[in-house]
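User: For my dataset I need records formatted as: sequence, then structure tokens, nothing else. Please produce one.
Assistant:
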Amino acid sequence: MISLPPDEKIHEIFRNCCEKLEIDNFSKNMDELVIYDMTDGTRTSTELEGSDAYFDGGMFVIRFIHFLKVLGAKNSYINVIHEGHKNRVNYTDIYEGMRRHVEMYKKFSALDNLRLRFIGKYDVQINPGETAYDLRKDFKELEESTAENPEHTAHFMINYSTRWAAEEGKEFFRTLPAVNVILRHAKGYVNGDMWLYGKLDSNSFVYAQNGSSNINWSDRQIIMLIAACLRSMLLNKGTHMSKKYEGDEKDVVRQKREIELSFVHKDFYDELTETKFRKRVVIFSSYGPEIYEF
């Protein structure tokens, strides 16, 4: 099992990160935070090859979800396999990486009191043609064994597509919680068919330049990433469709966005204490982009 810091240390680091990002009342807002983590960059962020790279990516997800749970978030979404991934030349590596995750996730969910849900089209086989092992039975067992765990629910999108969610999975999808932050690793876009149907009406977008590789991220860096997502949620809260401007608010926005071209760029990276590569995220306010390095 991977090594995780004590809860008190996680809260201490998070408090420090929120102070740097000028986030007030951070503890009160964490239960609202629902992140859709679009993991990526697994093959290119390290020198790991084949299923080892995808196994490492799964370890990043374990730490990310653990920190979210400890900090008070109740739900998260993780993209894993799009329906079209089954046609990729390296799908066998992806599938083998997932197979290796099963035992880890069994232990992890029990330790953290997590509920695991696997969202996607499961009335068809998802194993590669040359692989007989069917992971769907493991997913079913994990869902059943964790169904009553109340601390945090992690939704894994496996053999998922927006088309499936809008058609076959429409009624089921209505029961799922909404997302308020899309976290995108390595690339600056949301794949068209990985949109969470009906769940992103009040989302904000966070770009993480670095891939979702476990060995490349320190605990502090993952916690800072979560803090940046929280800031993104708070900056964009109430700006979707129903936004009303009061007083001189429109003038302030115009001045900062149109005239000053508001642009925030802060560097918190400490070479004396940080052993991992520098990380960079970009978030957005009503005034413009904010870039943070750490």
